[in-house]
Amino acid sequence: MKDKFIGAILGFVVGDILGAPFEGMSQEEIRSAHGYIKGPVKADCYTDDTIMMSLVLDSIIELGKYDPRDVLRRYLENIDKIHGIGMTTYYALSNASISDIHKGGKVARDLGYGYGNGPLMRAPPIALYHFFNQNDEELVRDVMEETLLTHYTPTAVTATVMFSKFLISIGRGLSTEDSYLEALDLINLIPEEFIDYEIPKVFEESLNRNIESLEQREVRGYIKNTIRISIMASYEEDFAGTLLTLVNFGGDADTNCAIAGAVLGIKLGVSEIPEEWLEYASLRDDLRKKVEKLYELACSKKPS
Ligand SMILES: [Mg+2]
């Protein structure tokens, strides 16, 4: 199982590195400027996805639990190093307050933001921390708190809670359909004002879809698009092939590949990530050690 934990985090990071140079480009722009992308092109060119996910991971393993205030403090302390953030996260962190941790997210929401994929990229360490926890209320509580730091909308909360449970269920070896049903169950644990019933529809419409069938409008950086990609990726068995298909679509290539990388990493294990791809991430050994600590913490939540 530890191999799957490491696969989720390293799969995520190599996805970010693979997609980062092509973020914001269209499929045609990539094709005419670079031809077909056949693998990572630049070492350590990760973005906000890796940086913010790592800050959540650091906080959990240092505190031995998830604490939203500590995570927010880390975001603010590292704000200059976090590059590539979306508009929601930008406005939320610019208006954040440690004494009122929901303030930044509410300001961003009042400006009309809260639909980007920021909270999805920060969810994997929290999902892994609760991997063996039978108490789903604790998973929902922590994922909700993380989401609300920046994205104070029902769409973001419902999508991130469902994605987190979906990731756990795929990691446990469940099929895509059964993982969706497990994720759907968690809606009952979300406070009514934070439920968006459109999100289960996005899941259902994405079932049985092949990643090749993505359209250009579906690879732009919105949380519903990224949810769709996570479901489509979960059917695949080929880590590298799937991420290459995805990166060549362009759009929000770094986050799309990071999320698909986490899903396939937890499904297939770290051994299915090409070794030459891992060499593009010089923080791989450091991350591996941190994930081993996270695994031990997760095991302590196993029912006795
Ligand atoms: Mg990014």
Name a few traits of the molecule.
304 residues; mainly alpha; ADP-ribosylglycohydrolase fold; globular; binds magnesium ion
Structure, briefly:
It is built from 17 helices and no strands. By secondary structure, it is mainly α. The site of magnesium ion has 6 residues, from helix 3 and helix 15.
How would you describe what is shown here?
The structure is a single chain. The protein is mainly alpha-helical and 304 residues long. The chain has one domain: ADP-ribosylation/Crystallin J1 (ADP-ribosylglycohydrolase fold), CATH 1.10.4080. 61% of the residues lie in helices and 0% in strands. The chain contains 17 helices and no strands. It has helices spanning 2-19, 27-34, 48-63, 68-77, 87-94, 103-110, 118-122, 124-129, 136-148, 154-171, 176-185, 198-206, 223-233, 239-247, 253-268, 275-278, 284-299. The longest helix has 18 residues, at 2-19. The radius of gyration is 17 Å and the shape is globular. The site of magnesium ion has 6 residues, from helix 3 and helix 15.
Task: Give the overall shape.
Answer: globular
Classify the beta-strand content into a percent band: under 5%
Count up the domains.
Answer: 1
The biggest sheet amounts to: none
Give the rounded overall mean pLDDT: 97
CATH homologous superfamily descriptor: ADP-ribosylation/Crystallin J1
Residue runs with pLDDT of under 50 for 5 or more positions = none
Q: Could you name the CATH class?
A: Mainly Alpha
Tally of separate helices? 17
- The helicity comes to 55-70%
Strand segment tally: 0
The end-to-end distance, rounded to whole angstroms, is 18 Å
Note the run of SSEs as H and E: HHHHHHHHHHHHHHHHH
CATH topology: ADP-ribosylglycohydrolase fold
> What is bound: which ligands?
magnesium ion
- Would you tell me the structural class of the helices and strands? mainly alpha
| CATH architect. name | Orthogonal Bundle
Radius of gyration: 17 Å
